[in-house]
């Protein structure tokens, strides 16, 4: 899935703000935010509900419905009706949407008695706002039954069950929610790869990276034969420790749980620690640059564009697709290609992760919505095949053509604009951006969905994906002692990981690791494991996993 990663940082509420959010949501039940009685709309003279037909195709309401839609992200494009995608939505549904954007502070003002919007989109599935959705949002299953039962044909049952609250109702629906069926289809591309420049790979005679010994040997060969390159690179270190954290663990197939189904601390897995020791040895050999630990996202991207790294462990190949394409176009025959890379020392197969069932942007219809019938029509429309094609590829005959095999292809002039004038393409078409209910599987409809630079990497990843559903949303509830301990542990682990890779010798590596283990004991780790194990159990029950 393609994410605008800067959102992830801005959506993590500070502890004080989290407490305020919980208080405001609770207060909303007795003030303007959550006390409003849901609007009942009459369908007389509009349409008769038909389970086999989307309500938007039946609705004869003549006047345009004006709706406000709050998106909890300052960067969201608030235009509506000017580009090909939203203009078509406006015409088909006879709606006009006024988008409002903001941050967590603005979001919380709605629950302190402000005027609630008709629709609301947030990103943090663990926030108090989401957990208290029953106080301010309308249940989608009831809206579908009353106004648009076709919604149940286009919404994924597993996703609806996943977002079900304790009252048995579902209030929010996300984009990029991948179910087990989606993974089984083979239409979801891998986003993680170990890559090497093709010219380097050929010059070294197809080198091996599979074992720690081979990895270290090859990195030293690269350092010797290509002194102007950095032998090994990785995503910028930060939240989640870049590609050297979960991504490396997935690459070598570190187990997701203990043998008896409990939470497993993958950071202390011996197989993973063996590879961290290897990276430390490579660092001490001078084949990992100190700059790589200091580079932010922009610094890393500049090196990707210029081909500075001989090899990389990349997590989020679609996000780097443009940078990889820039290097590929300017350097024919030197493009980056995926190879097997590091492998488990104990025989595990890769368990690469992709977007999970929680998705990303979670969309709600509020109790203040002036026309909930029209609002659920929007959900149905955008979740349908028609809406998915529109969001990804635009309008048939205007921006794309359909092929006999069912695939679609951008028209030459549109493709040219996409490649050579990205700003105008975004302004005029907005394809691939207006993705409230977007889904990875619809990218499989066209070879134009991804740049050439990552297609071989995606091909390499086939058969290596494994859902991580059981690990989603298992962190302790915000505001609890366990949550505070988890935050401290995450920060400590990020520092520990970097320190171990940069350790001056094996003794320093071991000492740093021992200090982290002691830190776990001092920060409620055993209680955190209990909480996570219980939430994993609940996840399995939701999904019917035994």
TrEMBL record:
InterPro entries tied to this protein: Bact_solute-bd_prot1
PROSITE patterns for this protein: PROKAR_LIPOPROTEIN
Keyword Signal attached: yes
Keywords: Signal
Signal peptide span: 1-27
Name of the protein described by the UniProt record: Sugar ABC transporter substrate-binding protein
Species annotation: Paenibacillus rhizoplanae
């Amino acid at each position: 899935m393609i994410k605008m990663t800067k959102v992830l940082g801005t959506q993590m509420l500070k502890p004080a703000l989290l407490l305020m959010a919980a208080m405001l949501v609770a207060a909303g039940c007795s003030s303007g935010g959550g006390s409003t009685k849901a609007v009942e709309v009459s369908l007389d003279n509009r349409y008769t509900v038909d389970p086999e037909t989307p309500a938007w195709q039946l609705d004869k309401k003549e006047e345009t419905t004006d709706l406000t839609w709050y998106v909890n992200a300052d960067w969201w494009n608030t235009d509506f009706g000017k580009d090909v995608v939203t203009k078509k939505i406006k015409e088909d549904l006879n709606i006009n949407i006024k988008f409002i954007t903001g941050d967590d502070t603005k979001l919380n003002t709605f629950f302190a008695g402000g005027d609630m919007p008709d629709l609301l989109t947030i990103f943090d599935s663990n926030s108090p706002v989401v957990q208290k959705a029953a106080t301010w949002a309308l249940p989608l299953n009831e809206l579908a039954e009353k106004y648009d039962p076709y919604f149940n044909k286009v919404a994924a049952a597993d996703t609806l069950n996943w977002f079900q609250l304790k009252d048995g109702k579902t209030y929010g629906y996300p984009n990029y929610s991948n179910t087990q069926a989606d993974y089984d289809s083979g239409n979801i591309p891998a986003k993680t790869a170990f890559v090497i420049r093709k010219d380097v790979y050929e010059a070294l005679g197809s080198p091996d990276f599979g074992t720690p010994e081979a990895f270290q040997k090859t990195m030293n060969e690269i350092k010797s034969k290509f002194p102007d390159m950095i032998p090994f690179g990785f995503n910028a270190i930060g939240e989640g420790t870049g590609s050297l954290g979960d991504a490396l663990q997935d690459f070598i197939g570190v187990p997701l749980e203990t043998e008896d189904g409990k939470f497993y601390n993958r950071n202390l897995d011996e197989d993973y620690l063996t590879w961290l020791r290897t990276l430390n040895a490579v660092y001490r050999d001078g084949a990992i640059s100190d700059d790589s630990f200091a580079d932010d996202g922009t610094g890393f991207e500049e090196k990707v564009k210029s081909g500075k790294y001989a090899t990389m462990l990349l997590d989020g190949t679609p996000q780097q697709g443009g940078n990889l394409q820039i290097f590929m176009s300017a350097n024919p025959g030197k493009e980056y290609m995926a190879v097997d890379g590091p492998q488990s020392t104990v025989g595990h197969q890769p368990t690469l992760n992709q977007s999970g069932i929680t998705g990303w942007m979670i969309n709600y219809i509020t109790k203040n919505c002036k026309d909930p019938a029209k609002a659920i029509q929007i959900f149905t429309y955008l979740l349908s095949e028609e809406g998915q094609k529109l969001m990804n590829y635009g309008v048939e005959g205007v921006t794309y053509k359909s092929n006999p095999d069912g695939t679609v292809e951008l028209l030459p002039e549109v493709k040219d604009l996409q490649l050579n004038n990205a700003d105008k393409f975004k302004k005029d078409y907005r394809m691939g951006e207006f993705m409230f209910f977007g889904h990875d599987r619809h990218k499989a409809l066209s070879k134009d969905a991804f740049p050439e630079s990552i297609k071989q990497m995606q091909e390499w990843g086939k058969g290596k994906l494994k859902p991580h559903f059981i690990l989603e949303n298992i962190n302790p509830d915000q505001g609890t002692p366990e949550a505070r301990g988890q935050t401290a542990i995450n920060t400590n682990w990020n520092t520990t990981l970097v320190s171990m890779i940069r350790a001056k010798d094996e003794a320093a590596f071991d000492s740093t690791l021992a200090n982290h283990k002691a830190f776990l004991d001092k920060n409620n780790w055993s209680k955190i494991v209990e909480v996570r194990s219980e939430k994993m159990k609940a996840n399995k029950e939701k999904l019917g996993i035994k």
